[in-house]
Amino acid sequence: MKRSLIPAALVIIVLLFPTLISFTPIIQPVKAQNASASFSDDFSSDSSAWQYFGSAFRDTTNQYLVLTPSGNQQAGVAFFNSPIQGSFTANFRYKAGGGNWQGDGFTMFFYKQKYSTVDSADSGSRLGFNSISVIPGYGIEFDGWQNVSWDFQGITGGQSNPSGDPSDNHIALIQDYTGNHLTWVNDTRVADNNWHSVSVSVQGSSVSVSIDQAVVLQWSGALNRTYDGFGFSGATGGVGSNWHIIDDFSITSQNLKTPNLTASCISPQTQSGFNVFKIGGSLTFDGAGISGAPIYLYYSVNGGET
What domains lie within the chain, and their CATH numbers? Predict the structure, then answer.
């Protein structure tokens, strides 16, 4: 059975019931002692940490994130709800393939301008990463289809004479749109319909990508951190029909936001015999309410000894 490490489920509230007639304690979450925090999600339950657009969804049966099922002109995006602007290390597993034709691909994007409309027209060349216009940000691209230069022409904000894809199986660091490759490497594991593990390290001025515990891509240069969007996108084109699946995601980042929990308990104004009249509170993630998350309440009448 898969186990999900959801920050909300890790919070344990201990309510000590004194003999006071009335009390209204407020319980605040303990803040991290350092600037880095971690989050992990194996998609076995709804962590409320993602926003899904287009064809993307959490598969409740297989317990993983689907960016695209097998089918033509599919495009899906999963945005991580916590903003990421500092250095980070992200890990995940992916599986791409299983369609009648090999295509198109997916990205893990970061420092990305947020958007909510996924363009399915000509989706194969754009991978859900951009539309007919440039959408600022970076992506680690896993591309299983070689698009020609014509596929990238006419993108507002793009190059006037863009190059085509370097090959039909490549991993690349891209910026702003899928036709802008900062660096790339050929790799047949892009869409071989097998599970592969990925680790992406983004530091002050460098990007490193490892596949199955071996470094495959490195780049150094200035990174634009204007935007804070992080997540995954994927697409199939007119002939491509691969599944694009993500699982066992984790990230460690500076200033990573985690759920915030507040709670209060109020007894009647008369002796209640250790009964609590009302327990209330809220659980939020970046200001938005989280529904369906398990919260465990414990009480003690002897100072927490039992």
Answer: 7-29+259-300 (no CATH), 36-254 (2.60.120.200)
Q: Widest CA span of the chain, in angstroms?
A: 80
Calpha distance 112→82 (Å, rounded): 12
Contact assessment for residue 15 and residue 23, using Cβ atoms and an 8 Å cutoff: no
Mean pLDDT of 93-105: 83
DSSP-based three-state secondary structure for 152: helix
Burial of 159 (0-12, 13-18, 19+ CB in 10 A): middle
List all residues 6 or more positions away from 159 whose beta carbon is below 8 Å from its beta carbon. 152, 179, 180
pTM: 0.75
For 252, residues 6+ apart whose C-beta sits below 8 A from its C-beta are 36, 37, 38, 88, 89
- Phi, then psi, of 273 in degrees rounded to 5: 65, 40
The whole-angstrom separation of Cα 206 and Cα 214 is 17
Q: Tens digits of per-residue pLDDT, 137-162?
A: 999 999 988 888 888 787 888 887 78
Q: What is the pLDDT of residues 250-293, one digit of tens each?
A: 999 987 766 677 777 766 555 555 565 677 788 776 666 766 66
Length of the chain: 306
Can you read off the two tokens belonging to residue 202? 């983004």
Please give the Cα distance from 74 to 135 (Å, whole number).
19
Structure-token pair, residue 88: 């980070």
SS3 state at 149 = helix
| Contact assessment for residue 111 and residue 227, using Cβ atoms and an 8 Å cutoff | yes
Closest CA to 73 of 235, 245, 242: 235
